[in-house]
Design a protein that fits this description.
By secondary structure, the protein is an all-alpha fold. The chain has helices at residues 2-16, 19-22, 28-40, 44-63, 74-87, 90-104, 112-125, 128-142, 149-152, 160-166, 171-186, 195-207, 211-223, 231-243, 247-259, 266-278, 282-294, 301-313, 317-329, 338-344. The chain contains 20 helices and no strands. The chain is globular and about 80 Å long. Helix 7 packs antiparallel against helix 8, helix 7 packs parallel to helix 10 (160-166) and helix 11 (171-186) packs antiparallel against helix 12 (195-207). The model has no long low-confidence stretch (mean pLDDT 90).
């Protein structure tokens, strides 16, 4: 299939070199089909040409009398942006965003998925300056959204590609983003201050196990930027402490968060569970899960399996029964871990 698509790209490129065939382009439906097939195969060149043909159709419709306005499906553009993240094609990135803006005809802003797709693309290309600039645009467009705003700016999910890019070269990249981008933007006119951006730095510090930088960045949210940490900021700090087996400090952060009336989410409890499990304390982890249930959250299957695994390894069958009871209560099928059990039961000779 890839060979066929590469041949098609060659044919298109040859057609572009002749005056006779340069003005030719497929019909609208075929352009959409070409784009879909190209993105499924990660063929960024064919995807670019398909979008280029669609742009010609849009331009042709705008100058027609009477005009007919064509629009590319935004889901197709999101697919193109994720293709950029996998193929590192800056040309496809520019073309995708340009045709999206043109398709919207200035009637509305791009969807959150489109913004996140472009952030992912810039992060994959290593262009952190443009990635954070796009985050700024994203916050301006959807920062006041009521529905699902918590997940939109979570560094653990939607913004995680940006976190990975920030910590790619360790503290070198993190310091570059903090000192040369976020602090400079803070002094700009008008200033750009973002809790989401700073939280990405905190989680990035946690990824490289640099708790000192993580705490300093958390403190800077209030002291240097004059902002208020959100639930994601606290979660990122809990993660950073927990990863280094600093369970006491992670618990203190959680308690401090509660004292400030910051409502924890399911991720907060899951991270605290992980912090206890790293220290092989399955009883404390189970206690946190019980608090989580009392607060109205349902533990994930992954979290329960982690606790069960620790119970088995510590031969704490009483806690294991409690985990099984919770799984049954919430209709979570835990499954078996026969392969893990075989590895755990191996007796290695000296």
């Amino acid at each position: 299939m890839c060979g066929v698509l590469d041949t098609l790209v060659t044919v298109i490129e040859r057609c572009k070199t002749t005056d006779q065939n340069r003005a030719l382009y497929p019909n609208w439906n075929l352009c959409n089909y070409l784009a879909e097939v190209a993105m499924q195969a990660d063929n960024y060149k064919l995807a670019f040409y398909a979008l280029e043909f669609m742009a010609k159709w849009i331009a042709r419709g705008e100058i027609a009398r009477p005009p007919f306005l064509l629009s590319v499906d935004e889901g197709l553009i999101v697919s193109a942006l994720t293709t950029v993240g996998r193929t590192y094609s800056s040309n496809l990135l520019d073309a995708s965003w340009a045709i999206l803006r043109r398709s919207l005809h200035e009637k509305r802003m791009p969807s959150p998925e489109s913004f996140l797709g472009k952030i992912y693309a810039h992060a994959s290309l290593g262009n952190l300056e443009k990635a954070f600039a796009m985050l700024h645009e994203f916050e301006a467009a959807h920062g006041n959204s009521i529905n699902e705003v918590e997940d939109l700016f979570s560094p653990f999910t939607s913004l995680y590609p940006l976190v990975v890019a920030c910590s790619k070269k360790g503290f070198e990249t993190l310091d570059s983003v903090y000192y040369y981008q976020l602090e400079n933007l803070n002094r700009a006119d008008p200033p750009y201050k973002s809790v989401a951006a700073l939280t990405c730095i905190i989680l990035g510090c946690g990824n490289i196990s640099d708790i000192e930088r993580a705490y300093q960045t958390f403190d800077a949210i209030i002291s240097s930027f004059g902002l208020t940490p959100d639930i994601h900021s606290y979660n990122a700090l809990i993660y950073a402490f927990g990863k280094l087996k600093k369970t006491f400090e992670a618990s203190r952060v959680f308690e401090h968060m509660l004292s400030l009336d910051v409502k924890p989410n399911a991720k907060s409890y899951s991270l605290l569970v992980d912090a206890h499990l790293i220290n092989r304390d399955q009883k404390a982890a189970l206690s946190v899960i019980n608090e989580m249930v009392t607060a109205g959250f349902i533990p994930s299957k992954e979290t329960l399996k982690k606790v069960r695994r620790r119970c088995i390894r510590e031969m704490d069958y009483e806690c294991d029964d409690q985990v099984q009871s919770l799984a049954k209560k919430f209709s979570i099928r835990m499954g078996t871990e026969n392969r893990r059990g075989m590895l755990f039961d191996l007796e290695f000779g000296t």
